[in-house]
Design goal:
The protein has 13 helices and 15 strands. With about 350 residues, the chain is of the alpha/beta class. The structure holds nicotinamide-adenine-dinucleotide.
């Protein structure tokens, strides 16, 4: 082990915990996973065995208390994040926390206050900023390559809806799914949204409606700098994960297409066709998951600010609450109404 390696404790060995554990173990030589915990002990044991993690702790608190740990990755269920951020901050550990920090702004504020008091680093898991396509779009806006931005369109559709049990605890489409798009909107334009108008519906699965949620939405964003944006969400696009962005500026536009498992085009007497896009976030955003952890580890190692801060974690939650309020009250909602 090199002296510069950052020692990582992982909390949660579910879908995203596994992805991050494998990244740290196999793709980031500058970091080392040293301990992992999950309330499902077997899940933690399996990830530990696959990734060569020496210790399986009994609880998240044991991971945080481990003296060999420099930084923790909080990859457990959303309802645990805020308390674990507070505990990790109090223990002086740097923190990477999956999105969202919480659904409650009061709990987020408590967590951010603990981070500030402790002076530790916090990065929130908005991985899409680290996707090479979207990073290039941001570069075009930031550098003025397409002039001043006027219009922004984000298309973000899942291949299939989550099970109703998940929907009930997810916080709803805006805090679970659109939250990534809210972050993307702020990131791409480099400015804050001041007003949101939502038209939403239940068109994919009536069970989602019975759980009090929506599965289809079009959200209009008004930025402080005048840019107008849309986010187009569906829980079901039958052709697969649809993740595209377009920005029109005074000097041109920039757009990204979907990512495909291959570039082959089949041409016959009847049709010209290609295979479907990469199916879901695990495949589509693989590179971004590695890039975001590399950035976090670098920030810790070099004692620099993290690229996605606690406030970057808070604002999309405000936007999600505003989007729901707009749908419920059928009117544009200013973010200042939320807090
Ligand atoms: N950035 C992304 O693209 C992305 C993708 C998926 C999930 N997420 C976020 O990651 C988090 C986890 O999602 P997931 O899909 O991996 O869920 P999951 O249910 O697959 O995994 C969560 C794991 O956390 C464990 N857990 C719950 N409470 C715990 C505790 N107190 N201590 C230790 N382990 C605990 C569960 O047993 C489970 O194994 C959620 O907040 C979700 O929003 C982010």
């Amino acid at each position: 082990m090199s002296a510069k390696q950052i020692r990582i404790g992982i909390i949660g060995a579910g879908r995203i915990g596994k992805v991050h554990a494998e990244t740290i173990a196999f793709r980031l030589p500058e970091a080392e996973p040293v301990v992992i915990a999950d309330v499902k002990v077997q899940a933690a044991q399996e990830v530990a065995a696959r990734c060569g993690i020496a210790r399986v702790a009994n609880t998240a608190e044991e991971v945080i208390a481990d003296r060999n740990v420099d930084a923790v990755l909080i990859c457990s269920s959303t309802d645990t994040h805020a308390d674990l951020v507070v505990a990790a901050a109090k223990a002086g550990k740097h923190i990477f926390c999956e999105k969202p920090i919480d659904h409650s702004l009061a709990k987020i504020d408590r967590a951010l206050a603990a981070v500030k008091t402790a002076g530790v680093k916090l990065q929130v898991g908005f991985n899409r900023r680290f996707d090479p396509n979207f990073a290039r779009v941001r570069q075009a806006v930031a550098s003025g390559e397409i002039g001043a931005p006027h219009l922004m369109h984000i298309i973000s559709r899942d291949p299939a809806p989550p099970p109703p049990a998940y929907v009930k605890v997810s916080g709803g489409i805006f805090l679970d799914m659109t939250i990534h798009d809210f972050d993307m909107a702020r990131f791409l334009i480099g400015d804050e949204v001041e007003e949101i108008y939502t038209a939403g519906g239940v068109m994919v699965d009536p069970e989602i409606g019975k759980a009090g949620d929506l599965d289809t939405a079009l959200i209009v964003l008004r930025f402080k700098n005048g840019v107008i944006g849309t986010i187009d969400n569906s829980r079901k696009a039958v052709y697969g994960y649809d993740q595209r962005v377009e920005i029109l500026g005074s000097g041109g536009s920039i757009a990204t297409a979907n990512c495909y498992p291959n570039e082959a085009v089949v041409s016959t007497a009847k049709e010209v066709r290609r295979d479907l896009p990469l199916n879901f976030f695990m495949e589509r955003y693989t590179e971004s998951f590695v890039n975001e952890l590399r950035a976090f580890v670098k920030a810790v190692a070099e004692d620099k600010p993290t690229p996605v801060t606690g406030m970057d974690g808070r604002i999309p939650v405000v936007m999600g609450l505003a989007a729901r309020k707009s749908h419920d009250e059928r009117r544009p909602v200013r973010l200042s109404e939320i807090g």
